[in-house]
Amino acid sequence: MGHDNERRQPRPRRKFSDEFKRDAVDLALTTDRPIAEVATELGVYDSTLGNWVRRHQDEQGAGNGVSPDERARLKELEAENTKLRMERDLLKRTVAFWVKESPQ
């Protein structure tokens, strides 16, 4: 009755580039179409695309919800802060030098 001799071979695992995954996730998130429809169009399983989307959302959440623009602004502020500290320290040393060198 059974076809034990005719076991189905698993499909070979396909490899997708990070760029393909990123583009697929972008497409899934920026359209109003269901993930299953986008997956079919791209030739991947809907569960696969769903996993990619979930992983992307988890990674975004791990970034504490900081947008790329906010990250760039933080980087600018940190650089400005470092520069201001260096200038402050230079001024302190300069003032200390002049106080030390000034006649009493």
Give the gist of this structure.
This protein has 104 residues and is mainly α.
Structure notes:
The protein has helices at 18-30, 35-42, 46-62, 68-101. The mean pLDDT is 86. Helix content is 69%, strand content 0%. The protein folds into two domains: 15-65; 67-104.
Give the helix/strand layout.
Layout: H1 18-30, H2 35-42, H3 46-62, H4 68-101
Helix pairs in contact: 1-2, 1-3, 2-3
Entry keywords:
2 domains; mainly alpha; rod-shaped; 104 residues; 0% strand
N-end to C-end Cα span: 111 Å
Beta strand %: under 5%
What is the count of helical runs?
4
Helix content: 55-70%
Which regions are unreliable across 5 or more consecutive residues at pLDDT < 50? none
